[in-house]
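Escalated from tier 1: zinc ion holo job.
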Amino acid sequence: MQLTYRQIGKIFDVSSTQVQYWLIGRKVEHFTEKPERCEICGVKYNKLNHHHWDIDNPRIGLYLCPGCHMAAEAIDKIPEFASIYLLSKEARELPARHRKYEDNATKAA
Ligand SMILES: [Zn+2]
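Tier 2 regenerated the structure:
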């Protein structure tokens, strides 16, 4: 298991920056410049989260709004997330659509 600078800092009760100085003698260069808008949905948001998926390369990531960040985390956890969600939604709506079809058929008769 590989710990992040932040996790190591928690163990020693110091900042992640301090851990970076201990381990590599300098602070890790920051991420790409923070944009004004979410890199997925484009909403303007001043507290964008930096979402990363590779613990070995935490600087590679995307700046996302909270909603897109949650979706990205879900998809990273379950790659089929979007398909499962859309199928589940469809299955939930099906009985209502069927009832509507039956009502229309009854009216027509
Ligand atoms: Zn977004």
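The chain is about 50% helix and 5% strand.
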